[in-house]
Amino acid sequence: MITTKKTYGISFALLFILCGVIQNSFATHISEPVLIDPPTQFKVGDMVILHGRVDYNAQPAPDVLLNFKLIRPDGTMAVDQSYPSNAEGHFEFKFDSKNEVPGTYQITITSHCLEIHRYACTYKNQTLSLELK
Fold first, then answer.
1. pTM strictly above 0.85
2. 54: β partners
3. Which pick of 27, 50, 64, 125 has the fewest CB atoms within 10 Å?
4. For 30-83, what is each residue's pLDDT tens digit?
């Protein structure tokens, strides 16, 4: 009887530990792009410059791949480019609007995580409307 209780106790402890390990194996890496005081109105011909950082656990994260997509008012793609955050976890997006038409543009910045976390990445993004006049 004591051996049975001991076996159940050990089995329960092992099951509890195993559940913790399995839960951690499905954890995802979540980094998020954050724009810092973005302007939203520009004149056609202006250089559109947006600054931001990538947050991971409420801290700036370096070397996180970001994708920048800028959509024109007619739905066509103006920009589709990717590059990583810098060593301080910051990024800068530049777009020369001299050959563009007035209207509302939409930029979406998507975090693709660090290379080592791609297998468990949750892709977060931030979208902003920009007005060219």
1. no
2. 33
3. 27
4. 889 999 999 999 999 999 999 999 998 889 999 889 999 999 999 999 999 999
Ramachandran quadrant class, 4 (left: phi over 0; alpha: psi -120 to 50; beta: rest): alpha
Place of tokens 């066509």: 76
User: Element (H or E) spanning 53, and its range?
Assistant: strand 47-56
Token pair of 58 as six digits: 């409420």
Q: Where do we find the tokens 């520009």?
A: 42
Q: Is the separation of the CB atoms in 120 and 71 below 8 Å?
A: no
What is the secondary structure of 4-24 as a DSSP string? HHHHHHHHHHHHHHHHHHHHH
